[in-house]
Design goal:
Blueprint (H helix, E strand, L loop, with lengths): L2 E5 L3 H12 L3 E5 L11 E4 L2 E4 L9 H9 L15 E3 L8 E3 L3 H7 L7 H14 L1
Parallel strand pairs: 1-2
Antiparallel strand pairs: 3-4, 5-6
Length: 130
């Protein structure tokens, strides 16, 4: 049997292990924290709970691929959020809403970052060519 060591048991490490174990590999994890999950974990301190990472999933098709590679149907039901999330700043009464739709996003940041949609398109084109 082939053996593999996976460093880190976050989503990437866990999904890689699932795929490899389905191919017959013997998996060993090396993890610095006491629990698996990586940025899916929380920190609790002084009566507060903080997410260690992102609170939303933007590439839901990855779950379909993961479950398919494991030979099972995806049991997860995803709901698209609109807005995706909100950002609150001290001293500002209303939050900034972050939208997937560039026109909505541009309207949200009107007067702060003019021509946002054009600037984002230009930036994203650079990233694709990079």
């Amino acid at each position: 049997m082939k053996k593999v060591i996976i460093i880190g048991s976050g989503l990437g490490g866990l999904s890689t292990a699932l795929r490899l174990s389905n191919e017959g590999y013997d998996i060993t994890f090396l993890e610095k924290h006491s629990t698996p999950g990586g940025r899916l974990n929380t920190i609790e301190q002084d009566g507060f709970r903080f997410d260690m990472g992102p609170s939303f999933m933007s590439m839901t098709y990855e779950f379909d691929d993961l479950f398919k590679s494991a030979g099972v149907d995806n049991p997860l039901i995803m709901k698209e959020l609109d807005p995706i999330y909100q950002v609150f700043f001290e001293g500002r009464e209303k939050p900034f809403k972050i939208f997937k739709d560039l026109k909505k996003l541009e309207f949200e940041f009107e007067g702060i970052e003019d021509n946002l949609a054009v600037k984002l398109d230009k930036y994203l084109l650079k990233m694709v060519q990079f």
